[in-house]
Design goal:
Largest sheet of chain A: 7 strands, mixed
Oligomer: homodimer
Order of helices and strands of chain A: HHEEEEHEHEEEHHEHEHEHEEE
Shape of chain A: globular
CATH class of the largest domain in chain A: Alpha Beta
Strand order of the largest sheet of chain A: 9-11-8-12-10-13-14
CATH topology of the largest domain in chain A: Phosphoribosyl-aminoimidazole Synthetase, Chain A, domain 2
Structural class of chain A: alpha+beta
Number of strands of chain A: 14
Strand content of chain A: 15-25%
CATH architecture of the largest domain in chain A: Alpha-Beta Complex
């Protein structure tokens, strides 16, 4: 087999067959994938005890077009697994199965594809999910940019779990799971070739363990809304939650964590860390009486060790997010209208 | 809103929000999507009576990179829905829910995106599935070619249904549901600007109704293998089935249907119709005693009216497909090694 991707690798013929057998089947090793039927056929809830099948299916998708493909702390493969695992987790579901769709530009070094597939396999193993079905397309030079990956994911939301952006209520505590902006600034500093002392690392991580711990620690129904901080950053996540639930949100600037190296690159590029993407952080809106237990449970987890209370849900200004500054002033937080950070994920 | 796609439409900010609300939410109208959470949360089997929940989940994905985006008989949107519906059907599952991931090149006319979304909605309505979750990414000019769409799909395979490429047995009847090569030649004649009398139409169609009728008509367990004919055509589908099941397959050339206009373009381009894609045809391997009932049920369906017996599964030459010609000779049918028809789906 040649060491670069050819158009024929996407033609559905002999080379497609060889590519799948060489790159994907061994790395994503599982019986459903190895069967190579048109669809994977799966037990719905293998990890869940019989008698607890009542519940609902969670289903999500994201395409990943990050540039560059490889960056400190991750790559497009890790991102593609973590992002979809996280989206399932944000509705309180346990992620179970992923699909993987590859759109490859002719000429991509096969080693790059293998490296991305290795990362996908490692991230899937960490998150405890299986990549059970996939697809490979190849387009001519100049018709794509190296590699795009789509993942879709299915998970299981047990009966009684109802976590939604529409469930926030006035009084809820707002918990942010860690420092802001690390993924976005890692990508941008790399892309812009910024002269920084140490390369910034993306925070890309699967958050299903963190969410499971949070849901276990809080009384049933006390975790109202979860959202992971991706494109648009904390600002976009909170505006969505405020709009979906028809509530106001107050954010305390002094409670937010932004690492000095992230803050200084933001300043250099004229960006507000509130708008910069993470890929391993979430915001939780939790009933006030459960806030302390929720916070403690999150802090005990690897990806929540710096979790902190950072605001609250209010009845005032429904649909709007207000930032309270350390000086006692306040300003409206909104979605960005333009595009400052293209191809961040 | 501007009438062309901007990078900011993929930034996760205000324009992304507006694009989703304008283009996708109204067309794909359903409660799960309108909720706009990170994942859709779904009843697993709304159309299935209580007490029949036993079964397994079917899960599949495909990315669509067809060029051009619009063609006689369909477009990338219709293809993206039908292709994934068909993949679920090929394991005997009832398709229920789809995801839709869009990768858009900056500058795409918004009207093209709307037209593709209209087609997706129409195809989903015909197939009886809902598009419940999605994602939109925008990449700069030259980093993609107009529009790529990924769909993933989940369906439900009731207990007792076991249709797999690995289940073929010597003696099985081979049924092809209709004429070969129509999708591939529709795309190629358009792309090559061939001077033909009437434009060829793609056969792109959802096959779940056809499969349901087939499974109902045949005794339980009699439908062993199904495969829709996409990239690589009937040849690739049969080679896969022969390899997966470890059986031989004999195909009767005189029983295959190829329309004259498809045959003449194939001749012009030097292609064998056996290797040319359909998007609305399937091959079924069925226990011999069920073949007549299966064929009758397929012929009663819109997309199976020209179904015919066209071969059989044999114990000889396992893993290989042999074509018997009208002259009494035979030749080996194999996958293509090169790429003759790039970006056909």
């Amino acid at each position: 087999m040649t060491e670069r991707i050819l158009l024929a690798h996407g033609g559905g013929g002999q080379l497609t067959h060889e590519l799948i057998q060489r790159v994907f089947v061994p790395r994503f090793a599982n019986a459903a994938l190895a069967r190579l039927d048109d669809a994977a056929v799966l037990e719905l809830c293998p990890p869940i005890a019989p008698g607890t099948r009542a519940g609902r299916l969670a289903f999500t998708t994201d395409s990943y077009v990050v540039s560059p493909l490889f960056f400190p702390g991750g790559d497009i493969g890790k991102l593609a697994v973590c992002g979809t695992v996280n989206d399932l987790s944000m509705v309180g579901a346990r992620p179970l199965y992923l699909s993987a769709g590859f759109i490859i530009e002719e000429g991509l070094p096969l080693a790059d594809l293998e490296r991305a597939a290795d990362s996908m396999a490692a991230a899937a193993a960490e998150a405890g999910v299986s990549i059970v079905t996939g697809d490979t397309k190849v387009v001519g030079r100049g018709s794509a940019d190296g590699l795009f990956i789509n993942t879709a994911g299915v998970g299981w939301a047990p009966a009684g779990v109802d976590v939604s952006g529409a469930n926030a209520r006035p009084g809820d505590a707002l918990i942010v799971s860690g420092a802001l902006g690390e993924h976005g600034m890692a990508i941008m500093s790399l892309r812009e070739g910024l002269p920084i002392a140490a390369p910034l690392r993306s925070d890309c991580a699967p958050l299903n363990g963190l969410v499971e711990a949070l849901l276990e620690a809080a009384p049933a129904g006390a975790v109202h809304s979860l959202r992971d901080l991706t494109r648009g950053g904390l600002a976009a996540a909170l505006v969505e939650l405020a709009e979906q639930s028809g509530v106001g949100i107050e954010l305390d600037e002094s409670r937010l964590l932004v690492r000095p190296e992230v803050a200084s690159i933001c300043e250099l590029l004229g960006l507000d860390p509130l708008h910069v993407a993470n890929e391993g952080k979430l915001v939780a809106l939790v009933a006030p009486e459960a806030a302390e237990a929720a916070l403690a449970a999150m802090r005990a987890q690897r990806y929540g060790s710096e979790a902190r209370l950072a605001g609250r849900v209010v009845a005032a200004h429904p649909g709007r997010v207000v930032l309270r500054t350390p000086l006692g002033t306040s300003r409206l937080v909104d979605r960005l209208v333009g595009e400052q950070l293209p191809r961040i994920c």
